[in-house]
């Protein structure tokens, strides 16, 4: 997050902002930074009404805040996203896992299909959920069926 805003490609924006459920300052792993709702970031880059080909998020646990916010307050913004790639952290806490599952079901209701879900192989923190070994984080990919071509 200590990099200035820049374009990584013609249509690939990097902003030194965190994505979360509300606008505020946070501290994470000793770093201080700002997080903003998805709509605020789209407004900032003037892309609110544009189609987003691929939204990639690795936001270290803030994915639930993002999903809470966008699925409850700004759901219309999801209709312009073709693909969502994100790292999710299901956690040992049942309440967090349950929230994540509810959001996944809601994405399905909105015509997104989960096409890939794999453990993050770089993640060192594994835990057991019942008798099954689980990773602390997974890389998931959703596609918006609205954009599928036959």
UniProtKB/TrEMBL annotation:
Q: Name one Pfam family in it.
A: Methyltransf_21
Please give the superkingdom of this protein's source: Eukaryota
Where would I find the Methyltransferase FkbM domain in this sequence? 48-105
What the entry lists under SUPFAM superfamilies is as follows: S-adenosyl-L-methionine-dependent methyltransferases (SSF53335)
The name on file for this protein is Uncharacterized protein LOC108676887
What is the originating organism of this protein? Hyalella azteca
């Amino acid at each position: 997050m200590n990099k200035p805003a820049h374009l990584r490609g013609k249509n690939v924006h990097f902003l030194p902002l965190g994505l979360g459920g509300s606008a505020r300052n946070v501290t994470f792993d000793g770093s201080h930074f700002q997080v903003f709702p998805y709509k605020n970031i789209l407004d900032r880059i003037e892309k609110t009404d544009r189609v987003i080909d691929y939204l990639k998020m690795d936001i270290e646990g803030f994915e639930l805040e993002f999903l809470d916010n966008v699925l409850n307050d700004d759901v219309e913004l999801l209709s312009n996203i073709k693909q969502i790639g994100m790292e999710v952290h299901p956690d040992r806490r049942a309440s967090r896992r349950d929230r994540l599952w509810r959001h996944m079901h809601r994405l399905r209701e909105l015509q997104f299909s989960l096409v890939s879900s794999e453990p993050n192989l770089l993640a060192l923190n594994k835990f057991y959920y019942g008798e099954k070994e689980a990773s602390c984080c997974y890389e998931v990919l959703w596609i918006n069926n609205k954009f599928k071509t036959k």
